[in-house]
Design a protein that fits this description.
heterodimer, A: 502 residues, mainly alpha, two-stranded antiparallel ribbon, globular, B: 162 residues, flat
């Protein structure tokens, strides 16, 4: 607690507040512009943090993260185009309200519940994360290997959006990419083809920039060709909700936040799942479920609170175990690596000031989100009007500068472009990006812990069965694999039966 | 799904399989240079495991994709967002512009190449107003250069002779 108070004291200094506010503004604008995701905004801002100390860097990134989660609602409400996947649900009630001339009230409700979600999710983040880290301090290479493996199994086997084989291929590709460069134990060059640049390995920044930004830029420029004009209208006449609506917002906000935290802790789920789940639960609990979808503040508050609540939940496994649950936390994990820090239990022990600084920034950013969100609404509406033929080339230039600035080398720019093309081809053929990125982030830890564990046991894999935690994690991993395979078998059987019946 | 489209759908799994086999080969070569493959001390130990896994799952993915395309589950090669008049052609043109940008940036400098990039993309997207086509790229190039030099601390070459 003392460390948090010290961190909060530092966070409310004018410089920190400015950094957090800047992050929030960038995040809200990025979230509001369709096509720019929270992940992309954080990735593009990473080069800005190279010359910052760790706490300030994460104040900026957390500000962007929280801001982008809240900002997605702006375009969903005003033009019915969601800024992020979770905001699709927000648009169901937000856009009808905007059409009735209540856009101001809808945006107020969105930012209020987003801020509420972030503040509530801070409580488990602050209480559970240090405890989990304390437990994890007793873990050694076998346990850490099994935890990382479990994270990858969850990402590959529990995501049902794409075929299982595509998930695993993407994950293996990421792991293969991370073996390029000097071996982490023997320092032997691997797959470098005699080039000096590849000896340092493939840096995560150009990979992330390429995977997330280039396919999106190509898609957005393609969309710009269709010349769809968007007109955002904002009625400022009705801003404040009534007392009854305000109480309803608090109710759906609390329920949504708790759902968001629960979903956020589970890797591989994402904010859209949290938003949909929260909307459905709040609709069922409502006295007037039939009004959901017609333009009511609860329909905006429920997904927005869950969306932001998820952010705090997702940070728990990321910080304590080094397991990112979604692209944003995967990028945040990469940002930690760039700052020379390794996520995991030792982070809480060796860099407690940075961790509590992050907690402090998270809390302050959560509170500021509401004020900056509501006060700057006219700015965000203007941002929505930026022509895409100017905006996306601008982002492209940012990508080039950001990749170049890593080592002042055009080699990294080519790496960025290569992974951009890979991401584009993968998207085109329904291969998911998330397992690839998470494998790239977790690959070094997976290899190091596997080899270290085997080296201490003299090459015997029995070490993974002897230890209780390791055994439990491996059993959970096997159960997840069995569950998914069983589900596939059942679907195939039902399909065959249907075909026979037809 | 026509035959050509079905073949194109299989192209990516085949490419991944080739990459996987290439890494298996590289791992074996690496293990010969260092220590035996099955030894955790060997730098080829982990890449070999992952490459073998990639080979197995690339084959499974290839078979699954083939089955899906024969079942007609994927009716077109390109998803809806990519179809239409411009479709992949737009992406090819923009990719070419990006390649030229990165390739010529060290020689022509940031100012010239950024003006070229902005101008070509704006023109490609349909901007025909001469004032916008001349003013915007120059303003963006200069502003972005200062963004690169100040917050990013990047010594990117500004002019051809830098």
């Amino acid at each position: 607690m003392e460390q948090l108070i010290t961190a909060l004291h530092q966070t409310i200094q004018i410089q920190s507040l400015l950094v957090i506010s800047l992050g929030l503004v960038i995040g809200i604008i990025a979230g509001a512009i369709p096509g720019i995701t929270a992940t992309m905004a954080i990735v593009l801002s990473l080069p800005l943090t190279f010359h910052m100390e760790a706490t300030s860097a994460f104040s900026l990134l957390l500000g962007i993260f929280i801001g982008a989660m809240g900002g997605g609602a702006v375009s969903a409400i005003l033009i019915n185009i969601p800024g992020n996947p979770a905001a699709i649900i927000t648009g169901l009630d937000g856009n009808p309200m905007a059409k009735r001339g209540e856009a101001g009230k809808a945006i107020f409700a969105a930012f209020f519940c987003s801020a509420l979600g972030s503040v509530i999710s801070f409580i488990p983040l602050f209480t559970i994360a240090p405890l989990l880290a304390q437990v994890a301090l007793g873990f050694h290479s076998p346990e850490l290997f099994s935890i990382v493996l479990l994270g990858l199994v969850i990402i590959c086997f529990l995501s049902t959006d794409v075929p299982l084989t595509k998930n695993i291929v993407a994950c293996c590709l990421g792991l293969v990419v991370m073996t390029v460069g000097l071996d982490r134990i023997e320092a032997t060059p691997r797959f470098t083809f005699g080039t000096l640049q590849l000896q340092y390995g493939v840096d995560i920044l150009p990979v992330m920039v390429g995977l997330f930004a280039i396919p999106q830029i190509l898609a957005e420029i393609r969309h710009a060709l269709s010349k769809i004009s968007l007109e955002a209208s904002l009625s400022t006449s009705k801003w404040l909700p009534s007392v009854r609506e305000f109480l309803q917002l608090i109710k759906v906000g609390v329920i949504g936040s708790l759902i968001g935290v629960g979903v956020g802790i589970t890797p591989g789920t994402g904010s859209a799942v949290a938003a949909v789940f929260s909307y459905q639960v709040n609709k069922k609990l409502s006295r007037h479920p039939e009004k959901f979808g017609t333009g009511i503040v609860e329909g905006i508050g429920a997904p927005e609170a869950a969306n932001n609540g998820m952010a705090g939940g997702a940070l728990i496994p990321m910080l304590t175990l080094g397991i990112p649950g979604d692209p944003v936390t995967a990028v945040m994990l990469g940002a930690l690596t760039i700052q020379g820090l390794n996520a995991g239990p030792l982070l809480f022990k060796d860099h407690a000031a940075v961790v509590y600084g992050m907690f402090g920034s998270y809390l302050v950013a959560s509170v500021l989100l509401f004020f900056i969100g509501v006060m700057g609404i006219k700015l965000y509406v203007k941002a929505l009007a930026i022509p895409k033929q100017i905006l996306f080339p601008l982002i492209l230039i940012f990508c080039v500068i950001g990749s170049f600035s890593l080592r002042n080398s055009f080699f990294d720019v080519w790496i960025m472009f290569f992974f951009g093309l890979l991401g584009y081809v993968m998207r085109l053929h329904d291969y998911p990006i998330l397992p690839l990125l998470i494998a790239i982030v977790l690959g070094p830890a997976l290899e190091t812990h596997l080899r270290m564990a085997l080296l201490t046991s003299g090459g015997s894999p029995v070490i993974f069965i002897e230890r209780k935690v390791t055994l439990a994690m491996l059993i959970v991993s096997l159960l997840i694999i069995a569950y998914r395979l069983l589900a596939i078998a059942v679907i195939a059987r039902d399909k065959r039966r249907l075909q026979k019946a037809a | 799904m026509n035959r050509f489209s079905a073949k194109l759908t299989l192209l990516v799994p085949v490419c991944f399989l080739i990459v996987a086999l290439f890494f298996v080969y590289l791992s074996i070569v690496l293990s010969r240079e260092t220590i035996v493959l099955a030894d955790p001390n060997s730098p080829a130990f982990f890449p070999a495991i992952i490459s073998f896994l990639l080979v197995i799952f690339s084959i499974l993915d290839l078979l699954a994709t083939r089955k899906r395309s024969s079942d007609g589950l994927r009716t077109t090669l390109v998803p809806g967002s990519l179809s239409g008049r411009w479709g992949i052609l737009s992406d090819l043109v923009i990719s070419l512009i990006i390649i030229l940008y990165i390739l010529l940036l060290p020689y022509a400098g940031f100012l010239v190449m950024t003006v070229f990039l902005m101008l070509s993309i704006m023109f490609f997207v349909g901007e025909r107003k001469v004032i916008k086509l001349t003013v915007y790229p120059v303003i963006v190039a200069v502003l972005m250069y200062y963004a690169a030099v100040r917050p990013f601390h990047t010594p990117i070459p500004f002019l051809p002779w830098d």
